[in-house]
Amino acid sequence: MRLSILIKHLEEFAPLNYQEDYDNSGLLIGHPEMEIQAALVALDCTEAIVDEAIEQNCNLIITHHPIVFKGLKKITGKTYVERVVLKAIKNNIALYAIHTNLDHVKHGVNGVIAKRLGLKNTKILSPKRALLKKLVTFCPVAQAEELRNALFAAGAGHIGNYSECSFNANGTGTFNGNEDTDPYVGEQGLRHHEQETRIETVFTVQDERKILLALLENHPYEEVAYDIFPLENKLDTVGAGMIGWLEEGVEGRAFLNLVKDRMDAVVIRHTKLLPKRIRKVAVCGGSGSFLLKEAIAAGADAFVTADFKYHEFFDADEKLVIADIGHFESEQFTSDLLIDIIQEKFPNFAIRLTEHNTNPINYFI
Known about the structure:
Blueprint: H1 3-13, E1 26-29, E2 39-42, H2 47-55, E3 60-63, H3 80-90, E4 94-97, H4 100-104, H5 109-117, E5 120-128, E6 132-140, H6 144-153, E7 167-175, E8 192-204, H7 208-218, E9 226-231, E10 235-250, H8 252-262, E11 269-270, E12 278-287, H9 292-297, E13 302-306, E14 321-324, H10 327-331, H11 334-345, E15 351-353
Parallel strand pairs: 2-3, 2-15, 3-4, 12-13, 13-14
Antiparallel strand pairs: 1-4, 5-10, 6-8, 6-9, 7-8, 10-12, 11-14
Helix pairs in contact: 6-7
GO molecular function, one term: metal ion binding
Pfam families: DUF34_NIF3
Binding site for a divalent metal cation 1: 65, 103, 327, 331
């Protein structure tokens, strides 16, 4: 199939505007309209992964981490990043990364960790702001329901577990069309008073084009009056980290054994174990030290993540247990998640999980 079709599906699951500003998710190499025979999925894109794609006749590599993270001024093959890029281009292999946008969706990377640990009643630990907008428009009362239905069908009106949410108030609108108008109601050159419904509804920023098309195509007026307001509200279903509850509280050592087993971790770096039992658990795949304050504020008994620096362990201040399981270990099941996402939509598409372990860290035990 065309690469653009596969990309569309991935970005409906984890929209690109959900990624952090520093990130570089999306199509890194390749043309959206190229035909894809098969895809190889891995956590990282290394030379070995590209060689595996060549051997397996895969002309697309999907990874969690983007191989091109910062700008490349030269591509001479001097670094491993440049060599990967050169080899992919030479062999007509597309590279696609789905990084912090996949971290930030509820059923993404952190959802996988929470599920493996058996956490219940999960929610986003640090929801993102500035992902919502509000549409306000005015429509003749008789046509208001039809317009609302069109806006809802385009994706407007979702608030948490509720859909088709809107606020409506009736009032009187006025207008006076000149000689170039063909008014739906009223006459040219005469001020018209029309009973209208003010419709307010929210939508996510990536759906703005669809919402506006639905508005303009289904509104009866030839000149549609509307306002769009950016909102600072948090979107509770999108953001960094996740927090949830174990079925029963466990003592510290039993909890670490649970994490080590469920996350297939070689070793766990952790803070001092506390006398209280662990039940409320925060998680963050990858480098999660920036969420420590949020985990403490949320009342977590433990925080499972990776890449804590030495002095950052002190910041736990005996308020919770930090369990640093390693960056690769915290995200290693992301590849399985990506395969599930793709196969659910395209069950007959040839997609393979890499046979290589791309963890650059080795442990001497």
